[in-house]
Amino acid sequence: MAQTVSSHLIRKNGLLIAFVVFLIAVAFSAPSFMTPGNVLDVIRQVSITGMIAIGVTFVVITGRLDLSVGSMLTLLTVMVVDLHNQIGPTAAILVTLLTGIFIGAVNGALVGFLKLNALIVTLAMLSFLQGVTLFYSGGSNVNVANAQETWFAFFGRDNMLGIPVPVWIFLAFGALAAFVLRRTRFGRTVFAVGGNETTSVYSGISASFTVFCTYIISGLATAIAAIIMGSRVMGAQNTIGQGYELTVLAGIILGGTSLMGGSGSIWRTVIGISMLGFIQNGLLLLGFPYYVQWLVTWSVIIFAVWADLAAQRGRVLA
């Protein structure tokens, strides 16, 4: 009995146990790893991917994917920086938020109402947004004019009570998303659609509208992340969001949200994306080349998906 319980705990929390072992090993090898300053820096860095991951978690719980968020982040970051110079920070932020919601709505309409494959739709949107970004910027990088005089830097560079503002935004959005997912009727419909879409439809739930709304949430979250990114860098490159969709997906899976849909947690996504950030930071402090992060991210995704399937089957091998 005890052996069964221990094997179940290892199967369910194997990644978390491995992460704790990793933290201990790196802390002994790199004394600066667990200092308050480095911890806050890591959380500040993951706040951008974390914001996106929170939004995409809603999509994944319904059993869909959103692979367009990396290109969406690039376009929206370029847009908010460019518009800041043209119409001011307030209007630029508003337009960026509305654009993110619109892109999410397009994805949601194609996947939710037209029943197109989410993987194909969002991959196509990824390519389309890359083209739009280059067309919009003319292939040039953009920078905030008079960077020392604008309050736009508040979102990415300032501190409140000794904690970076991006961390506050990240945690506040996470708390709001967790409340919506766990304490509202909409949140229950998200789980219902992901658990069994056919049954949810017979229960009077509009699966199409639910999926549509989750993509809007994903677009809104990406827009907020773009504002933080633009404020932090005070500029934008045409490739600034490249690869973010992979990191976001890795963090969500690492947090235990099932790609099959029907299960997941916002706070577990927050933990998952933070774990990935600490792993990448630890590798850099240990002197590994930057590209090793991508190899580790791939390994994490493969192992996390395997662990998810093993937990659902109740056995390690098929």
Question: Could you characterize the architecture of this molecule?
Answer:
With 318 residues, the chain is mainly α. 75% of the residues lie in helices and 3% in strands. The chain contains 13 helices and four strands. It has helices spanning 2-29, 36-61, 69-87, 89-113, 118-137, 154-157, 165-183, 185-195, 197-202, 207-233, 244-254, 266-285, 292-313, and strands at residues 142-143, 159-160, 163-164, 235-236. The strands form two sheets. The chain has a two-stranded antiparallel ribbon with strand order 1-4. The longest helix is centred in the N-terminal third of the chain and has 28 residues, at 2-29. It is globular. The two termini are 23 Å apart.
Task: Output the keywords.
318 residues; mainly alpha; two-stranded antiparallel sheet
Low-confidence stretches: none
Please give the order of strands in the largest beta sheet: 1-4
Ends: how far apart? Answer: 23 Å
Helicity range of the residues?
over 70%
Total E-strand runs: 4
**Oligomer designation:** single chain
Tell me, what's the shape?
A: globular
- Order of helix and strand elements from N to C terminus: HHHHHEHEEHHHHEHHH
Mean pLDDT: 88
Q: What Rg is obtained from the alpha carbons, in whole angstroms?
A: 20 Å
Outline the biggest β-sheet.
Answer: 2 strands, antiparallel
Give the DSSP E fraction (strand runs of 2 or more residues).
under 5%
Derived structural class: mainly alpha
Number of helices: 13
